[in-house]
Amino acid sequence: MSQPTDRAPAGSPRSTPDEPWPVRVVSQKIAGWIARLGDVWVEGQVAQLSRRPGTNTVFLTLRDPAADISLPVTCWRQVFDDAQPPLTEGARVIVHAKPEFYPARGSLSLRATEFRPVGIGELLARLERLKAALGAEGLFAAERKRRLPFLPSTVGLITGRASAAERDVLENARRRWPAVQFAVRNVAVQGASAVPQMIGALRDLDADPDVDVIVIARGGGSVEDLLPFSDEGLCRAVFACRTPVVSAIGHEPDTPLLDFVADVRCSTPTDAAKRVVPDLAEETHRIGVARDRLLRCIVGRLDREQQWLDGARSRPVMARPEVMIDARANEVNGLLDRSRRCLAHRLDAATGELSHTRARVTALSPQATLDRGYAVVQREDGVVVRRPADVDPGDQVRVRLAEGEIPAEVGFWDEP
Amino acid sequence: MAKNAAQAELSYEEARAELGEVVQKLEAGGITLEESLALWERGEKLADLCQSWLDGARARLNAARAADETSSSG
Lengths: 416, 74
Hints:
The structure holds 2 protein chains of 2 kinds.
Chain A: H1 4-11, H2 23-36, E1 40-50, E2 57-63, E3 70-76, H3 77-82, E4 92-102, E5 107-117, H4 120-137, E6 154-159, H5 164-176, E7 182-186, H6 194-207, E8 211-218, H7 232-240, E9 245-249, H8 258-261, E10 264-266, H9 269-276, H10 280-314, H11 316-319, H12 322-364, H13 367-371, E11 376-379, E12 396-401, E13 404-409
Helix pairs in contact in A: 5-9, 6-7
Chain B: H1 2-9, H2 12-28, H3 33-73
Helix pairs in contact in B: 2-3
């Protein structure tokens, strides 16, 4: 008969409250399961290194570059030292390892047997694949690019602490537009924490309603140094931003994927400063020019209108209204004249006729005969005496001579 | 004021167009003296109205220029 603790794993396939398994048995079973997993090739980023002097084992943390997931890794000092180039924090590595259970502490780690650095060629090829995938998904589409504001109220700046890139952006932007406001987020721009810090800062600035544009700036660096700027997670975070994002990564000649997903890509931090704020002097000049043109326009229009008005006023009908009265006065005078002349003419004609008639009357009168010495004898009743029988003796008659008349009495004839 | 009331009635363009018509009618002739006089008086009024519009515009322009110079020199 063996002891219950020894008997249990062998005798019962299942643990029960009555027959619980001791810790060592459980630990042993887990170790057995894990041992069956076999070896694995895993890629990640070295996050923490701990090389304690005097120990033969090196501890490090292998981290997924895109997610907040990590695994502890242990290896013999010799394996660690054999890695070429030497392992540093932030390095991308491919590890050949075997999951291993450490019974003394119940912890799991990867026991590494070999480290291989991720080759630059391989990295670039992988970037190309990622670029193609993101491009196919539409992250780089030109129609998704947002326009930068003409004059942002606040410029968000994500960059390394006290970096040349930070200084370049701040100084150049302030030189162009002295009143520019910045919200600077200093983050790690290389190494394991670069991507999460940049994504955090990006979300933070995107949520700030005062921030109208976000600049991600870094000076130049090696392909590996710039890897965080090609990270898929960062690219997606930039794509998800509502605020326009400007990339300003100094790089030669490889382009980080951030440049493709950003709304505006600038070759340097200085260039980014030029793009995010207008030049005060230039804008002032433009406003001046526009104002001058405006003024010339309105002055010209006023002058033209004034000319027209002066022209209308100087037309004879407007300038000398007396003309219209004068014309009518002339008309009236003319008519008066005509009527007067007409009347005078008629008077003349009548006068002529009168004298003519008078001449005829004169010619027909007996005066001429009287002038020659003849006389006319008229009875008292005016009848001209033509024969003696016309009168009786004693009748009163009038003798009309050329120059006057004589009263006379008919006498008696002596009877012979 | 009477001038303001007239301004409120007619815009510059309306006054200008009517003034043009008045001059045309006067120049064409064929109307009575009484009509001519009435037209001429209307024309004078319209011309004054146009001038007051232009004077007002110039005054505003000069005021804006003066303000601009003050602000840019100060």
